[in-house]
Design a protein that fits this description.
globular; 4-stranded antiparallel β-sheet; 10 strands; 3 helices; about 270 residues; 6-stranded mixed β-sheet
Length: about 270
């Protein structure tokens, strides 16, 4: 099998601070230096370099691996297959997603069963993907999307992007490739594609005091529709508007990188 992996982004070597973990957060005093640069050397509106690969699981309908900074995500898709739930005939199929952190993926060991956060993320990804797939092509069947986080470095937007690559690898009919982007709200401005040390969390022990909130936007560019929106923390209306604009701009850049990668794979 050819090596479909391709690096998107700057060629310079990474800063060790790019891979900061959750337990490092309390030791960080400032997230933006006097030059307006973040800990990993990025500007406020700069995405992390991304590595992507499709077709990594030959037994799945579609599969993909996505690595962004310290974030490592694996997605496999199975089906369409008969739904386990016995229901009346439906003219369209449905998407079922299971989002799961590997036990070793976070600073604090995760449980083997899904917790509340993982169920919430599963529902968000399901809603974001449902509008992009031509579900009426497989009535009363379901498409199973399994997302496994191998290393946590800011995962929700990356999970949707990884699932989008897996859908493209599956060859299933789609209306559009869904893409997502996350913005963290810092006292100095909005930070696109936050690393783990910049991410907002409800855990005050590891949350940086300069981060007051975050938002994730899932976007379908072909029909210019937001298929998912999630906000955490407290934000002013002006920050929300700016954050949404940054997320949409980030989605367009991410989609361009994904399309360039898929074109390269197709040409091989």
């Amino acid at each position: 099998m050819p090596d479909n992996r391709r690096i998107q982004g700057p060629e310079e070597s990474f800063s060790p601070l790019l891979y900061l973990r959750e337990e490092d957060k309390p030791q960080i005093k400032t997230l933006i230096n006097s030059n307006g640069q973040r800990l990993d050397g990025r500007t406020l509106n700069e995405l992390r370099p991304t590595c992507m690969q499709t077709g990594i699981n030959p037994h799945a309908t579609g599969s993909a691996y996505l690595e962004t900074g310290s974030t490592k995500i694996l997605c496999t898709i199975y089906g369409p297959k008969e739904s386990v739930r016995r229901e009346e005939f439906a003219t369209s199929g449905r998407v079922v997603c299971e989002f799961k952190y590997a036990p070793f993926s976070c600073a604090r060991r995760r449980q083997y069963h899904q917790d509340v956060e993982e169920k919430d993320f599963s529902s968000f990804v399901t809603n974001a993907l449902t509008r992009s797939v031509k579900l009426d092509a497989f009535p009363k069947l379901q498409l199973e999307v399994n997302i496994l986080i191998l290393e946590n470095g800011g995962t929700l937007a990356g999970s949707i992007n990884c699932a989008s690559l897996a859908l493209a690898d599956s060859g299933l009919e789609m209306y559009n490739m869904p893409v997502a982007s996350t913005v963290a709200v810092h006292k100095s401005g909005c930070l696109i594609d936050p690393s783990i040390c910049e991410e907002y969390t409800n855990d005050e022990v590891i949350r940086h005091p300069d981060i007051s909130g975050s938002m994730t936007v899932a976007y379908l560019t072909a029909i210019q529709e937001i298929s998912g929106f999630k906000q955490d923390g407290v934000m002013e209306v002006g920050r929300i508007r700016k954050g949404v604009d940054m997320c949409l701009g980030g989605c367009l850049r991410i989609l361009k990188s994904m399309r360039e990668y898929l074109e390269t794979v197709t040409a091989q």
